[in-house]
């Protein structure tokens, strides 16, 4: 098959192989290896970093959705006394799988001299379990104990640890007074019994959220209805479209928010970070491309006699350019292939590799109070891999243009005179 290739390709491939085997100029061989290694490292780094950022977004999003709900429906009047009818109306949309009423409060939890702010959500446990995935398994027992008038509370695991309370012990909830005035700024307080804890794996929720029964929340707020409904749909990614459809079908003045709106700033920041990391790490490949330029320039100098002989045999300038473009591009492709293989393998096994490193070193790479999660996630996406490969190949190709053009500027007589 090689015999049918154009001679420019045959000579370019031969130059790559000769450089790798030592050739007449050992430094050219070293630069060729350096350029291949540089491109490979850049490609592998890009694939691994993008996979980690994809995994981070996937894990944090999944844990957010398990708590925040896919869609929230609010009554513009402030309360939703007719929530069963609204729930039945939303159920007519085939995408809606379940609904649950809720009422949120902002308060302070106290135990001894320890004090922590918390978001309290009043729920109906049986209904909430249909829209919140985390109310299952070990987390379900505490929610079953949330009964009207019992004033039980389920705390996030980190919140319970920070307050130093366990199941069966009590905490004090302090809320702003519903009838506060300049002469009466004292908060209202209520003692709750810890019925259990839950752990989602998202530090923001595990350390700052608690659940009580809906009727207890209504009593504390001195209202007689929930604030709205939480909806679970079949595909969380379709939440904006389903919310828009519900706006058009629900009768009345309702405000709908999907989970992407509530976290729009966070997702926008993460997208910007991913884009910037791609650009910054692409500079690694760009630096390696400069090595390709240097390697080709030295290769052209080393092969001046070969170029002169080819020119005297009738080779055109374009053919000389093709020879060195093939040499440089093949060197870049070797780096791209090697980097892609290494990057994909690392991305697939990153979790195990990090866990082994943490076990051997005793260090913990991610603090969950900073990064929300405590394990290094990774999600390999082939469109990211394709983008990285395309950028690396394009940079490798561009790096061959100037040295290849420079090779055509040498005069055969001058080159052969010194041989």
The coarse silhouette is elongated
Rounded to the nearest angstrom, the distance between the terminal CA atoms is 34 Å
Contiguous helical run count: 17
SS class: alpha+beta
Task: Please give the largest β-sheet.
Answer: 6 strands, mixed, barrel
Oligomeric status of the shown chains? single chain
Order of helices and strands: HHEHEEHHEHEEHEHEHEHHHHHHHH
Number of strands: 9
Q: What is the mean pLDDT?
A: 79
Major beta sheet, strand line-up? 2-3-7-4-6-5
- Proportion of β residues? 15-25%
Low-confidence stretches: 19-24
Using the CA coordinates, give the radius of gyration: 32 Å
Structure write-up:
The protein is an alpha+beta fold and 419 residues long. The chain has 17 helices and 9 strands. The chain has helices at 7-21, 26-68, 83-91, 125-131, 140-144, 157-163, 203-206, 214-221, 239-249, 259-262, 264-302, 304-312, 317-361, 368-371, 382-398, 401-407, 412-417; strands spanning 71-75, 96-111, 114-123, 152-156, 170-175, 188-198, 209-213, 228-233, 254-258. The protein has a 6-stranded mixed β-barrel with strand order 2-3-7-4-6-5, surrounded by 4 helices. Strand 2 (96-111) and strand 3 form a beta hairpin. The chain starts with 6 loop residues before the first helix and ends with a helix. Mean pLDDT is 79; it is low at 19-24. Keywords: Cell membrane, Lipoprotein, Membrane, Transmembrane, Transmembrane helix, Transport. Belongs to the ABC-4 integral membrane protein family. LolC/E subfamily.
